[in-house]
Design brief:
0% strand, transmembrane, Formate/nitrite transporter family protein
């Protein structure tokens, strides 16, 4: 297929994309970030519905990537994906440390705002703004997941929190593979397939994604989960974000970028 892009070209595109992202204004970062947060939240709700209807979590994982591929195709901003790209531009001296922090911070805030917005709207739609007290299967699942992702880890002490960190590394290893694999094709269908495969893997295995948790944990709190604001941030959000940075940058961004750029240079030198 003529639309296939080689790994060496992908490595060049990774750097160009990182620099381009770093130049975006705060307005664009917030808007694109908020849309991404909402789209992932919608995907979580869809995946939970599919799981509830089929009793097969694998079906939920199969449909979950729809939000991610929309984000990729529309060029929106997802902080977990940016973890694999924007710091690369800083490491290579293409952007300043301030630009890197500004980009990641505003995208994080945008993702959080979009996720919270959909959580509120989802709660209002599911309960008719608090009038319906009996919760459906999806809402019950969200409560269970919210508690498992916070007080569940905390209940196992340091080892429980470390497992959340490890799951976050493994998660963003795959998520950022999806970001980079989407660059291997010029066609819309090619991007959908290439980006969707790693996302299916991470969701099916139940790993920890910072932006997904920006929806599912506060949504669980709205539906009655026994989780506090402190539980959310101390036992999950901060730890998972740190793990996502490691998985995205070290295992994906740096690994793919440096192996293909250095190999190409060494061949030319010979």
């Amino acid at each position: 297929m003529m639309d296939y892009i080689t790994p060496h070209e992908v490595a060049e595109n990774m750097m160009a994309t990182a620099v381009k992202k770093a130049e975006l204004c705060i307005r664009d970062l917030l808007i694109r970030g908020a849309l991404s947060g909402a789209l992932l939240a919608i995907s979580v709700a869809l995946a939970l519905m599919a799981t509830a209807q089929t009793s097969l979590s694998l079906i939920g994982a199969f449909v979950f990537p729809v939000g991610f591929v929309i984000i990729v195709i529309l060029g929106l901003e997802l902080v977990t994906g940016s973890f694999s790209l924007v710091p690369l531009a800083w490491l290579e001296g293409k952007i300043s440390g301030c630009k890197m922090i500004k980009n990641l911070s505003w995208v994080f805030i945008g993702n959080l705002l979009g996720s919270l917005l959909f959580a509120v709207l989802f709660w209002a739609a599911s309960t008719e703004t608090g009038q319906i007290k009996e919760l459906g299967l999806i809402e019950q699942a969200i409560i269970k997941i919210s508690e498992k992702k916070t007080i569940g880890y905390a209940g196992h002490g340091i080892l429980g929190l470390f497992s959340a960190f490890v799951k976050a590394i493994l998660c963003n290893w795959m998520v950022c593979m999806g970001v980079i694999m989407s660059m291997t094709s010029k066609s819309t269908l090619g991007k959908i397939l290439a980006a969707g495969i790693p996302i299916f893997i991470f969701f099916a295995l139940g790993y920890e994604h910072a932006v997904v948790n920006m929806f599912v944990i506060p949504a669980g709190m709205m539906f009655g989960a026994k989780v506090s604001l402190g539980d959310w941030w101390l036992y999950n959000q901060l730890i998972v974000t740190a793990g996502n940075i490691v998985g995205g940058l070290l295992f994906t961004g740096m690994a793919i970028y440096y192996t293909h750029t250095t190999k190409t240079k060494s061949v030319e030198d010979e």
